């Protein structure tokens, strides 16, 4: 679900500016509300993923793999 939301928001350009930032915030909010979190190393910039999705170099499958390897259940 996270990959689908991120890809959809990034590629559909709902706003004149801030589409990638908004897409990431919505995705993070959805993950948190589902009782999960992301375990992302501090030296791994999240914006690299968002930009790669926007450019098309990372598709749905790649984003799904990225999220699956970092998703953790929150107590």
CATH class: Mainly Alpha
Q: Let me know the CATH homologous superfamily.
A: Fic/DOC protein, Fido domain
| Rg value | 12 Å
Instruction: Give the percentage of residues in beta strands.
Output: 5-15%
**Overall mean confidence score, pLDDT:** 94
- The structural class is mainly alpha
CATH topology (fold) name: Four Helix Bundle (Hemerythrin (Met), subunit A)
Structure, explained:
With 75 residues, the protein is mainly alpha-helical. The protein is built from four helices and two strands; from the N terminus they run H-H-E-H-H-E. It has one domain (2-73): Up-down Bundle (Four Helix Bundle (Hemerythrin (Met), subunit A)), CATH 1.20.120.1870. It has helices at 2-12, 19-33, 46-55, 60-68; strands spanning 36-38, 71-73. Strands 1-2 form a two-stranded antiparallel ribbon. Helix 1 crosses helix 4 (60-68) and helix 2 (19-33) packs across helix 3. The model has no long low-confidence stretch (mean pLDDT 94).
Short summary of the structure?
The chain is mainly alpha-helical. The chain contains four helices and two strands, in the order ααβααβ. The relative contact order is 0.22.
Q: Which SSEs are present, and which pair or pack?
A:
Layout: H1 2-12, H2 19-33, E1 36-38, H3 46-55, H4 60-68, E2 71-73
Antiparallel strand pairs: 1-2
């Amino acid at each position: 679900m996270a990959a689908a939301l991120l890809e959809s928001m990034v590629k559909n350009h709902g706003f004149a500016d801030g589409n990638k930032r908004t897409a990431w915030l919505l995705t993070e909010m959805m993950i948190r509300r589902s009782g999960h979190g992301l375990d992302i190393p501090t030296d791994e910039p999240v914006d690299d993923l968002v930009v790669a999705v926007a450019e098309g170099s990372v598709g749905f499958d790649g984003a799904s793999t990225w999220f699956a390897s970092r998703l953790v259940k929150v107590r």
